[in-house]
Design brief:
With about 1000 residues, the chain is α+β, with helices and mostly antiparallel strands. It is built from 32 helices and 32 strands. It has a 5-stranded antiparallel β-sheet with strand order 2-1-5-4-3. It has a 5-stranded antiparallel β-sheet with strand order 7-6-10-9-8, with helices on both faces. A 5-stranded antiparallel β-sheet has the order 12-11-15-14-13, sandwiched between helices. The protein is elongated and about 180 Å long.
């Protein structure tokens, strides 16, 4: 160990070596002592220029342990060589250190310090310092110097007088210990204690502690204050007798003595206690003894929970169980898988099934039947699978098989852990209401008259937001005629500013959301129409979005009034008196507490002004509006915006009424609301009238939807009639052409045989002439050479054969045209289906041949042995023409794109060239009477029931979204002018409706397409 000090010098040369050796020995012992002290030992001087001045401590000696504490070597601090020790004391602690040392010097008492230092690595450490001021008079010090001489170094580096009245020389000796870890432990202990106290204070149950001797309270948490109504200051150091009546106090004290005597806890599940501040409460109380180190009881820990409300809930639940059993509605409770666990008497009365018959079964397996809407069933199952509520009307069947309508409301039941426990379903029999609705539907003309004479605008759109209907009031509001509005888009009546929000509203309608909102339209003259829009989405029978019905109420005057109201509010102080006389007015602060109400407010709500001031409007809340209503209200006014709406309130005597309410925020200089002014108007009578109108509107909308559907059906039927007329005209034309061609062709075909016979006779005669006159005259010889008689004799038979073949071909075409037109077959007849297919292929043969840029389309015919079929032959030929024509279109598209059907699932797998395949087959049914005594099927006695025609192509296939609308009228994917969208629709009508058959399409992208036609062999239609 190194002790940094001045080397010892002695001025008196007469000191002997023996004294020097003694001094060195003492110094060595001192070093060993210092090295084993668990801290840094120091010896320093101190200097202070004035009592209020800064204290300067200069280290004369400092042990090496300071380096472990501060990170600096001890030599840095000796005589302030590099830095003073005060420089590493934390700036916030220096003043306190100086003051404590000064006081110690002045009183000649030891000093103890705890302060922070800044280590060499920048970390903060806590140190403990204990020291003692060593004092002597100045004269005595000077005398000692004369005797002993000047000693430099270890004990006398520099003597600095401290300014005081006694003029003493002062040294400081002490030790410095690192207490950082101890400080951290104390901090952790304090944090733990604060944490545990915070936990107890924030527990939702009462926690209190009593001492074991006098049973006085020594701890009382926040939940105890709320439960018992006593503050912590009122309870601490008091016992139960100081707070409660004697009977309750004695009862509680007996419990405490029992706990102490038995040294065991007590658990009181239900304890009724009368509290001075809260009345009679039911508590669940537990008390346990706490022991000291010797095992003697020291404290009593008590825990109390208020179960008054839970007991009330149990009572209410038992009452609800009785209500559920006796209610007129049917109630079903199922498990999470939808299996019935319980049904009430109302369900038995409606359905005829008792609990024993339904238990363990799913409602749908028992109650649903053939007339139950499949879409409703799918939506029900989807809701159950997702564990969400379901509300819809559905058609069920009772035990006797009789159908009835119910309003079904299903809600999921969740455990506290969030796990689905089951479902509760309520059935309300609405069969009478459904019958009433049927009667109302028959009054369509009456409601149409209402629509035209309504004071509100009625505006209907199709799925593309194109106007399909507008009543005269709607046209009048926008400044157009009804004719001018029809066929125009919704967005033509909206300015650019409102277009984006209008598009969002349209999207919400497509999602099936109906709502009511304010909106701004543009009139024909460019002015704006503000209106309340009640929008209801419409869907067709297949659940596809088909349009929107909008009810339009002109509120331009109201919007203008709102603008004027905002201007008026700035001058509210000048017009307050007039406002109080004409409206129900109240003011609230920023937190909603009422600060002012006028006389009309008190009169309307039946409260005195004193009863209202300081309260919130919850006092008059009727409970009609949901929490989200008030959340949006507060969100609006806290943004400094005016809120306008209609609110249902309740007077003190329970009277309910409607108020048209406007709430205006008053802004401070920062632009933030600091109070709110509410202006109300009684609109109870108007609301009653609106409710009646809304009922009529709902019925009217239902009628309008039926009218729209009927109109679409008329358009569909009309288009199909036009197409059928076209096909009839085409058939007449084909039949006429075939007839006109048939006569001359028959004449040619019949005379070709005679011409061939005549030619043979002439040839025989010519050969005879050549035999009899082998040497012709020069003129005859010249003519023979010119006409090339030998070639003519050889080619003329071939020419006649070609004419015969051509005439035969024309005769076959004419026969095919006659078969295709079938004008003579207005009724069903038994025909050969293969003839109709061949006729159709003959007509379309030109599209199958190879042309420039398109290869030949390969036709695969796989015909089975079909029986003759009872059908409308001409109409079936039309079906073959439509489907085969579409197949040719598909393979032509594949020729252009190169997208051919691939994979084993394709109807024509692994074929990269354009190919069509037509297959025919027979479906059989067993004769039930002849097979009644036999369990084994015998194909030899089966009877054909249907013939099946499959027409397949290896084109690109049909996308899923197109597949859904394949048989819809006017739906086509072809370019304009290339298709009407009626071919497959008419084909479906001919096959399914005319012949009682089946028309099915199997296709997928990249898989090709196959149409399957099934026709009954003996059609009953």
């Amino acid at each position: 160990m190194q002790i940094s000090s001045n080397s010892s010098k002695f001025k008196n040369g007469d000191r002997n070596n023996e004294d020097g050796s003694s001094l060195l020995s003492s110094e060595e012992k001192y070093k060993n002592l210092v090295a084993n002290i668990p801290g840094a030992v120091y010896h320093c001087t101190c200097d202070c220029t004035s009592p209020d001045g800064e204290l300067t401590r200069t280290m004369a000696f400092l042990s090496d342990a300071v380096q472990e504490i501060s990170g600096y070597p001890s030599s840095d601090f000796i005589n302030d060589r590099v830095r003073s020790f005060s420089s590493i004391i934390h700036p916030q602690d220096r003043k306190n250190v100086d003051a404590t040392v000064k006081k110690s010097v002045a009183t000649r008492t030891p000093y103890i310090l705890k302060y922070r230092i800044v280590r060499a690595d920048g970390e903060i450490s806590w140190v403990y310092e204990k020291g003692q001021a060593v004092c002597c008079e100045a004269d005595e010090a000077r005398g000692r110097q004369e005797i002993e001489g000047e000693i430099e170094g270890f004990l006398a580096a520099r003597v600095s007088p401290i300014a005081s009245s006694l003029c003493r020389v002062v040294y400081l000796d002490g030790v410095i210990l690192d207490i950082t870890e101890r400080k951290r432990a104390e901090e952790d202990l304090r944090n733990t204690k604060d944490f545990l106290n915070a936990v107890l204070q924030n527990l939702p149950i009462s926690v209190f502690i009593k001492d074991a001797v006098e049973q006085k309270f020594i701890y009382w948490n926040t939940a105890s204050e709320e439960l018992f109504g006593y503050s912590r200051d009122e309870v601490l150091l008091n016992n139960a007798a100081d707070l409660l009546e004697s009977d309750h106090a004695n009862y509680l004290q007996a419990q405490d003595l029992e706990v102490l005597a038995t040294r065991k806890g007590v658990d009181l599940p239900e304890q009724t206690i009368e509290l001075p501040h809260r009345g009679k409460r039911i508590l669940h109380t537990k008390k346990v003894p706490l022991f000291d180190d010797s095992g003697a009881p020291k404290y009593i820990l008590g825990i109390a929970e208020d179960i008054t409300e839970s007991k009330k809930t149990e009572t209410e639940l038992s009452r609800l169980a009785i209500v559920a059993q006796k209610t007129q509605n049917g109630v079903i409770i199922t498990d999470a898988q939808g299996c019935i666990e319980w049904v009430n008497e109302g369900f038995t009365r409606i359905s005829g099934y008792v609990l024993a018959e339904m238990q363990g079964k799913k409602p749908g397996d028992v109650l649903q039947g053939p007339q139950t809407d499949p879409l409703a069933i799918a939506q029900l199952r989807s809701a159950l699978a997702a564990g969400v509520p379901f509300n819809q009307e559905i058609y069920n069947y009772n035990k006797d098989g009789k159908g009835y309508w119910v309003a079904l409301s299903i809600a999921p039941i969740y455990q506290e852990t969030g796990e689905l426990e089951g479902f509760i379903a309520v059935h309300t029999d609405i069969s009478d209401r459904k019958q009433t609705e049927e009667v109302l539907r028959k009054s369509e003309s009456y409601y149409r008259c209402i629509v035209e004479t309504a004071s509100e605008g009625v505006w209907m759109f199709d799925s593309e937001s194109i106007t399909t209907f507008a009543n005269s009031r709607m046209a009048e509001m926008l400044g157009y005629t009804v004719e001018e509005m029809l066929g125009r888009s919704l967005f033509e009546f909206i300015d650019c500013e409102s277009r984006e929000i209008a598009e969002s509203y349209v999207q919400r309608r497509r999602e099936g959301i109906r709502e009511r909102h304010d909106f701004k339209f543009t009139r024909k003259d460019g002015s704006h129409l503000w209106a309340i829009v009640s929008a209801t989405p419409m869907f067709d029978g297949e659940g596809e979005f088909s349009g929107v019905l909008r009810m339009i109420t002109d509120i331009s005057d109201r919007k203008q009034a709102e603008a004027e109201l905002r201007q008026t509010l700035k001058e509210l102080e000048f017009e307050k008196f007039a406002l109080d006389q004409s409206a129900i007015v109240s003011n609230t602060d920023e937190f909603g507490a009422i600060t002012y109400v006028n006389d009309q407010f008190c009169e309307q709500f039946k409260y005195s002004r004193e009863e209202l001031i300081g309260k919130t409007h919850r006092l008059v809340n009727s409970g009609y509006h949901p929490a989200d209503f008030f959340k949006k209200l507060w969100s609006t006014i806290r943004q400094g915006k005016v809120w306008r709406g209609e609110m249902k309130n309740q007077a003190k005597d329970g009277t309910l009424f409607w108020l048209d309410t406007t709430i205006v925020p008053c802004l401070n200089t920062s632009g933030e609301p600091h109070q709110y002014v509410a202006i109300r108007k009684d609109i109870t009578k108007r609301k009653q009238a609106e409710e009646a109108v809304q009922l009529s509107e709902s019925q009217l909308r239902s009628k309008n939807q039926e009218l729209a559907k009927a109109l679409r059906d008329v358009h569909k039927t009309q288009s199909m009639m036009v197409q059928n007329e076209k096909m009839v005209s085409l058939g007449q034309l084909v039949a006429g052409v075939a007839h006109e061609i048939n006569n001359p062709v028959s004449f040619i075909y019949g005379n070709v045989m005679h011409a061939n016979d005549y030619f043979k006779d002439l040839l025989k005669m010519l050969q005879l002439y050549q035999q009899e006159y082998p040497q012709p005259t020069p003129a005859i010889k010249q003519e023979i050479e010119e006409i090339d008689l030998n070639f003519m004799l050889t080619d003329l038979p071939n020419l006649l054969n070609s004419m015969k073949m051509g005439a035969e071909r024309i005769r076959q075409i004419v026969l095919s045209l006659k078969n295709f037109s079938r004008l003579d077959e207005a009724e069903q007849k038994q025909v050969d289906i293969h003839e109709g297919i061949e006729s159709t292929l003959l007509i379309l043969q030109h599209r199958l041949k190879e042309t420039a840029g398109h290869p030949k389309i390969t036709l695969l015919k796989q015909f089975g042995n079909l029986p003759r079929v009872q059908c409308y032959a001409g109409q079936l030929n039309q079906v073959f023409m439509n489907i085969i024509g579409n197949a040719i279109d598909a393979v032509e598209e594949a020729m252009e794109t190169g997208q051919w059907a691939e994979g084993e699932l394709a109807p024509i797998p692994y074929c990269p060239s354009p190919t069509l395949r037509i297959c025919t087959d027979v479906k059989y049914e067993q004769d039930a009477l002849r097979q009644a005594d036999s369990a084994v099927s015998d194909d030899s006695i089966r009877h054909p029931s249907h013939i099946v025609i499959r027409i397949a192509d290896n084109g690109p296939g049909i996308p899923i979204d197109v597949h859904k609308r394949l048989f819809d009228p006017f739906f086509t994917t072809k370019e304009p002018g290339k298709g009407t969208g009626l071919g497959l629709s008419i084909s479906y009508q001919i096959v399914v409706e005319k012949h009682g058959g089946v028309l099915r399409c199997d296709s997928a992208p990249g898989q090709g397409t196959e149409f399957a036609i099934e026709i009954p062999v003996a059609n009953s239609q």
